[in-house]
Amino acid sequence: MSKLRVAVIGVGRMGRRHAENLRFNVHNAELVAVADVDSNAAGKLAAELELEHSYGSTEALLSQQNIDAVVIASPPKFHVSAIQAAASAGKHIFCEKPLALTLAEVNEVEGAVERAGIVLQVGFMRRYDPPYIEAHRRIAAGELGEPIIFKAIGRDREPPPLSYFKSGSGMLFVDASIHEFDLARWLMKDEVAEVHAFGGAIACPDIGQCGDLDAGIVNLRFTRGAIGNVENFRQSRYGYDIATEVVGSKATLRIGYLQQTALTVLSCEHVSHDVVDHFLVRFREAYFNEIQDFVQRVLADQSPAITVQDARKALVISLAAERSYREQRAIKVSSGMEVAQPAP
Amino acid sequence: MSKLRVAVIGVGRMGRRHAENLRFNVHNAELVAVADVDSNAAGKLAAELELEHSYGSTEALLSQQNIDAVVIASPPKFHVSAIQAAASAGKHIFCEKPLALTLAEVNEVEGAVERAGIVLQVGFMRRYDPPYIEAHRRIAAGELGEPIIFKAIGRDREPPPLSYFKSGSGMLFVDASIHEFDLARWLMKDEVAEVHAFGGAIACPDIGQCGDLDAGIVNLRFTRGAIGNVENFRQSRYGYDIATEVVGSKATLRIGYLQQTALTVLSCEHVSHDVVDHFLVRFREAYFNEIQDFVQRVLADQSPAITVQDARKALVISLAAERSYREQRAIKVSSGMEVAQPAP
Amino acid sequence: MSKLRVAVIGVGRMGRRHAENLRFNVHNAELVAVADVDSNAAGKLAAELELEHSYGSTEALLSQQNIDAVVIASPPKFHVSAIQAAASAGKHIFCEKPLALTLAEVNEVEGAVERAGIVLQVGFMRRYDPPYIEAHRRIAAGELGEPIIFKAIGRDREPPPLSYFKSGSGMLFVDASIHEFDLARWLMKDEVAEVHAFGGAIACPDIGQCGDLDAGIVNLRFTRGAIGNVENFRQSRYGYDIATEVVGSKATLRIGYLQQTALTVLSCEHVSHDVVDHFLVRFREAYFNEIQDFVQRVLADQSPAITVQDARKALVISLAAERSYREQRAIKVSSGMEVAQPAP
Amino acid sequence: MSKLRVAVIGVGRMGRRHAENLRFNVHNAELVAVADVDSNAAGKLAAELELEHSYGSTEALLSQQNIDAVVIASPPKFHVSAIQAAASAGKHIFCEKPLALTLAEVNEVEGAVERAGIVLQVGFMRRYDPPYIEAHRRIAAGELGEPIIFKAIGRDREPPPLSYFKSGSGMLFVDASIHEFDLARWLMKDEVAEVHAFGGAIACPDIGQCGDLDAGIVNLRFTRGAIGNVENFRQSRYGYDIATEVVGSKATLRIGYLQQTALTVLSCEHVSHDVVDHFLVRFREAYFNEIQDFVQRVLADQSPAITVQDARKALVISLAAERSYREQRAIKVSSGMEVAQPAP
Fold it and tell me: What span, in angstroms and rounded, lies between the C-alpha atoms of D226 and D248?
């Protein structure tokens, strides 16, 4: 098969980005259809991208013959059913993060993928971001010596609309911190053994009234003794700020990208510079790289770069952080796996 | 005409970049052929990009019917003849900088373009770089007040191979500083009235033996009284460093981009960060933007964004700088136009 | 009294710094004597600073008549006895941090100071550092809106000698993090309600064998709902790195000072810049400011800027962090006060 | 002689700074008197610094017996007469820059110093600034290879009052750029062979009406072939910005110090940081270091660190730049020495 025929399920901002990349930039992929419960939105995107087919449901889309793989970019609570349907139909799957919202769901996904013998890759796109790739390479090469402290912040400029927090996309630790937790595992080459979380909703009380947090801070202890901290905040106001640091016994490495266009204005009021304002801007290249890599792996019969197991392990940390926040105590990650369910 | 059918003349690194963008990224263009005096190189690139046609000469290429426009990326001394041939054949033209090496040549080009009634756009790609676009917007909006000082550095990490300096690509001021001279005109919204240049070839004596410079520094006086300085250097060794500053009566604006991936390594030896290493990396987006804009303008019957007149005015500054260096005195730009010819 | 006559107890690096400032830079102070259990060291410093008097004990020093105030810069475990003796003798006291190692000791100090009616000020010198002063001013002025997240790192380039960890100077959280805890209270204008700590000794196992940590990370929850994290590390190797951030509902403020002399070297190996290497360099001005302010306050019969109560509250957080680390659970700060004693 | 007894002539902001340093910070100096044509100002400063003596003229001051050395900080046009008087009286001299305004004056000074057998040191304080000292050390150690390009900017936040420009302190190139010219000689270990200058007074037309410039830009050619550029501007509005760069064949070195307190404010309007606002802030340490070094050199019978010859060579460059600006042509520095007089 010379080109991978891909369909996109869910045409929100992430689904749209994946669709555009598949349509225009990934040269060994062919975008063949899009689907969304809002069939108008699906139809509009199809027209814009000059596609023949759009659908109002995953089922309808899967009835189309010439589809080799699907990208699932619907809200997280719909991931599992979409994965099950696509796997049953023998389609390879690229699924946005978080793969699922509970461990029970991850187990279902894992079974479905195994039974179908398909490739499923998870969208932790930071692993495809050039600075993070380079950081990973240097750490793996031993430049830092023994990793000792992992630090990360992840701040959005503005929170998503309130409807987002009512849509079951998972609490802050599951929806946002999971990126940092995946980085922690990947960069430290270690697993998280224990977490402790504090959180709050001072900046955005509305988010608090949805039962979620606008700010969370999670202490980490790794199995080999390293420690760490992850902070997420929904409303920095100044910009989209993703920064990660690994302190090692020999050297320390910082990854950050506050500026967008390297423009500094110096006036009598202040010396200021521009900032990255949105994740689709900051990680444009990563989003392209990850979907391109997925296409190449499927075409080459290779296993996925980021597996269900990776998704499970990041989710376990997220759920443990959530539980730590709710129960006001540190939570051991291993013992918490079976019980770490979101509160009702 | 729904897609613009474009051919690329010259398949060195710049021609290759344009060809790749036209083939993969510019969606309303269709790359239909490439040509190079090295017909093997042209053939290889055609195979790589899955093109049907490649040629060993501009003439052969122009005999192909379905070509609407050509991108000229051959060495500068061949620009004029290629432009004349393409214009005679009624093709629109995107030509790399410098458009030509002498004012006599620019006059020839101007005549040919007028007679043929085609669009010719010049490849000053920095005008398509997002930080420069934003800087231009802010200056035009009056944020800086009156522009007072223009400063620019342009440094390559390593010089091109020695053959480059023997190939008649123009002296440092024509080949390299011309980018800064174009920025000076564009950002200051003013013309350069007088220049004074010093130069040397200490770092790369081989370049000196080719009659060229590895370092040049040019004082500028603008017609409305502002002043400035442009520095170019062929061998910074630390990276590709393009930085521009406009000092205004109300504020100052700096455009720079030393870092590539925002990665800092902190060790006991030093705290260091990565740097941009090459112009194809730094200006990747600008190269894409300029060729996309050219395609859109031609399809929409619009005039070019960067004209023969822009190319002429930047070249006049370059030639005046060269003459100032040779004659060891300041050169008025207006009076120098008719005589500013490169030394034999 | 036109000049305050001050003596310094303890002539290690901190005592020496205070003595030099008092001798040369604080113009309304007169340094009249130094004391150290190592009477040779005391004698040498006295000779160097051209003082008439040096002593081998606090008691001997206090028998000298013309002393108005003492600076206590001996190891922390000797602070309480020195304070009691000086207070009994009616001397005003400037005491290095930590004021004491247990809450019982703080109670003793408090009683002694009250009975003697003297001024006692504690050496949290960061409150005298110009960037921190400016940060405090801006936060107090409401520039950040509501404070939401407090973040701080404190990293030494190299740990003190192993003897330091055997000398009873308090665990990492008491000896080092206490600076960050004081900043947390001061900048957030709030008290810490709960902490959770992880720690390790991977980089310096020798420190671990002394029962101490080389790295610690402490989650904070403030009484009004804000959250935070403090990290301390003994061996960054790249430099002395003190950075603090307060995220607010309206804006965020960062205080940092990685560079020392603003010198950047750009070579083909790397682009690197210099860093601050030591706290006596970074906080030179703060050390001078705090001792000058102490002298002025005593001369003007003013109360101290940083009180026993401030020392107590920072120590309570330190001890709670230590207990959290030992008992592997989050510790409420208020309830932990009576029991938060260092392990035997 | 155990302490050097020093008097200060001229109590403007620079004279005041020197007086304060001598009074409080330079421990082997004793400030014994101050003088100013404004005898009230002299008297007030004497009272403030608790000095017994103040005078309304240099002559009156020199009649005081116990003076070993004088610091001359009066306006430049009074330097020569003060130097002659002090030298006749056998006093060692520290003189602010510029030493004199013409080469004829420098010749007079040189003769007077030689006849009197005294030490005269010139106040190019940047040679005493830690980052510049470190830069000089690294360049001298060969880290940069062969120096190829020298670049410097020197920008004041606001110009001095208009009276300053009417007081005969020398044109921009003599008053301001002379610092950069001295750095050029010192860091490049080479002499300037030729200059070319442009200038203007767009931002501050009042300065233009005094016959001076608010902005100047000077191309440099060094005797060994290196090139360079110096820019000075009187009204940056954003801060006091001194930055110097030496590009070498092996590496490049940048010295800069835009920030003052390392404070960054990140808000939805902008991400901004503080800046140095004044030369007395930026070079506080340098001003102290230079006057301390002068005192030590005189006490130790050593020759001055910065000589009349250094002052002469920097002034020659300044005067050549001024002449280049006036005559609108490049000026060879060697040939210009005898004629490079300021215009009437």
Answer: 10
pTM, 2 dp: 0.91
Chain B residues touching A255 at Cβ < 8 A = 262-264
Q: How far apart are CA C93 and CA C304, in angstroms?
A: 10
φ, ψ dihedrals at D60, nearest 5°: -60, -45
Q: Evaluate whether D68 touches D298 at the Cβ level (below 8 Å).
A: yes
How many helices (H) and strands (E) chain B has is answered by: 13, 15
Say what the pLDDT of residue B337 is.
52
How many Cα atoms within 13 Å fall on the side-chain side of residue D162? 8
DSSP state at residue A141: T
Lookup: tokens for A171: 């609490």
Chains that touch A (3 or more CB pairs under 8 A): B, C, D
- The residue type of D115 is R
C24 and D CB contact within 8 Å:
yes
Q: What is the largest CA-CA distance in chain B?
A: 66
C-proximal residues of A, 312-341, CB under 8 Å = 328-330
Nearest to A85 by CA among A65, A113, A117: A113
C199 chain-A contacts, CB cut-off 8 A: 227
Whole-number pLDDT of residue B168 = 79
| Cα–Cα nearest to B206, from B163, B155, B154 | B163
- Specify burial of residue B89 (Cβ count, 10 A radius: 0-12, 13-18, 19+): middle
Kindly identify which residue of chain C lies nearest to residue A151, measuring between CA atoms: C231
DSSP conformation letters of C266-284: EESS-EEE-----HHHHTH
Between chains, do A271 and D272 touch, taking CB under 8 Å as contact? yes
Structure tokens at B52: 């049907």
pLDDT of residue C337: 52
Q: What confidence tens digit (pLDDT) does each residue in C67-120 have?
A: 999 999 999 999 999 999 999 999 999 999 999 999 999 999 999 999 999 999
Contacts of D249 (CB under 8 A, 6+ apart): B202, B203, B235, D144, D145, D146, D148
Report, as ranges of residue numbers, the positions in chain A whose pLDDT lies below 50.
335-336, 338-344
Phi first, then psi: what are they for C10, rounded to 5°? 95, 115
The whole-number pLDDT of residue A343 equals 40
Model confidence over D161-185: pLDDT tens digits?
999 998 878 999 999 999 999 999 9
- Main-chain phi, psi angles of D309, to 5 degrees: -65, -40
Partner-chain contact D25 C27, CB within 8 Å? no
Residue B31: band (very low, low, confident or very high) from pLDDT cuts 50, 70, 90: very high
Strand partners, A332: A194
Choosing among B257, B258, B270, B274, which should be mutated to test the C contact, i.e. which has the most C CBs within 10 A? Answer: B270
Q: How does pLDDT run across D137-154, given as a tens digit for each residue?
A: 999 999 999 999 999 999
Other beta carbons less than 10 A from residue D64's beta carbon: 16
Q: For position D4, what pLDDT does the model report?
A: 96
Are B233 and D246 in contact by the 8 Å Cβ rule? The answer is: no
Secondary structure class of A125 (helix, strand, coil)? helix
**Cβ-contact A261, A200 below 8 angstroms:** no
pLDDT digits (tens, 9 = 90+) for C238-297: 999 999 999 999 999 999 988 988 899 988 888 999 999 899 989 999 999 999 999 999
Long-range contacts of B20-23 (CB under 8 A, 24+ apart): B20/B49, B21/B287, B21/B288, B21/B291, B21/B292, B22/B71, B22/B291, B22/B295, B23/B49, B23/B50, B23/B51
pLDDT at D316: 95
Count of residues for chain D? 344
- For chains C and D, CB pairs below 8 A equal 73
The fraction of chain C above a pLDDT of 70, given in percent, is 97
